[in-house]
Each structure stands twice: as structure tokens, then as C-alpha cells.
Amino acid sequence: MTGTKTYRHWPHIVAALGALTLIGATGHGHAEDQQQVSFTAPSVAGNTATAPSFAPSEEAVFEEAFARYDIPADPVRPASAVDITTIEPAEPATRTLGSGIASYYGRRFHGRPTANGERFDMHELTAAHRTLPFGSRVNVTNPRTGRSVVVRINDRGPFVRGRVLDLSRAAAEEIGIIRSGHGNVELELLEG
């Protein structure tokens, strides 16, 4: 059987070999067992060969041009690089504010303006303090349960003697003082 086959990498082969025709026998010597493979050189300056009989599609040319990029390469990390996935996040600096009794306020004040002008939302983690600047973040811990919550100061109070903090209902639920209405807490100011 005789046939003509043009290879995908013909430009590279043709550049090296020019115009070449190979006829190979399978070993039996019969005409039907022979296969003909032909390469045709493209026209280049100084080459009088005929134009190629096959032109690859744009997709084939694109695939061939980028075939070397298909092999995944392991990224090389310079010795001076730092792997940030292994760095533990730094704990925020804290300043102990002491301990005292905290209470909470909820439905009765929900939607009313706070001292900083916001509307009070009993579902947010906020609190009222007499002197801390608005926006301060305070870690409030219930030493009885070990549970803690971080609240943002957005109001003034409490106005009951002996109490240091008024928590929103959501914050009071987090540390477990809803049932009693108040409880002993430890306060830490988060700085930075």
C-alpha cells in the first residue's frame, strides 16, 4: 500500500533535510508492502522547492508554539523569600483594665441613638463605657465560664453605681450573663 503522510513538525524537519523522499520496504519486497513518506520544503530565499502541500491550522500552530509551556514547573523560591503561610498571626497588644460588674441592655433601647450618634442594635457586639474612646475594642471575659467576647465601645454608661460596662444583648449572650442580668467580668483593651 502506498500513501503520503505529512508530519506535524514538518517545518523543522524540512529546514534540516530540504526536499526528501523516502521509500521503505517492510522486508517482503512486494510493492503493496511499501510505504512512501514525502516531505516538501517551503519556499525560502535561495530555495526553489515547491510550496508545502499541507498547511497546519492556526490552532495547531498555536498548540505547537506553546507545547513547552504545558509541562508544569515547580516554582523556585529564593532563599530570601518568606513563606507567609507558616507565619502565625500576631496577637493584638492588650492592656488590662481590671474587673468589675457588667450588665446588659436590649429591646427597650433597640433603635435609639447612642452617645456616638449610631443607632443602638442589640444584635451587634457593642458596649457602653464611661470613659473609653468611641471605637475602642475591649475583650470582655466571664471568669466563671471562661467565655469571652470582643466588643466595640459606642455608648456611654452604665449609670448604675458599681457597674463598669453595659453590654449589648448579643455580647451578654456570648459570655453567658443573660439569665442573671449581670455578672463579674475581666476587661482588656485591645490596642493597635
Automatic annotation (TrEMBL):
Stated family: Belongs to the RlpA family.
Highest taxon, organism lineage: Bacteria
Protein name from the UniProt record: Endolytic peptidoglycan transglycosylase RlpA
UniProt KW keywords: Cell wall biogenesis/degradation, Lyase, Signal
EC number per UniProt: 4.2.2.-
Record's function text: Lytic transglycosylase with a strong preference for naked glycan strands that lack stem peptides.
Keyword Signal belongs to the record: yes
Classification via InterPro entries: RlpA, RlpA-like_DPBB, RlpA-like_sf, RplA
GO BP terms in the entry: cell wall organization; peptidoglycan metabolic process
Molecular function via GO: lytic endotransglycosylase activity
NCBIfam families tied to this protein: rlpA (TIGR00413)
HAMAP family recorded: RlpA
CDD domains: DPBB_RlpA-like (cd22268)
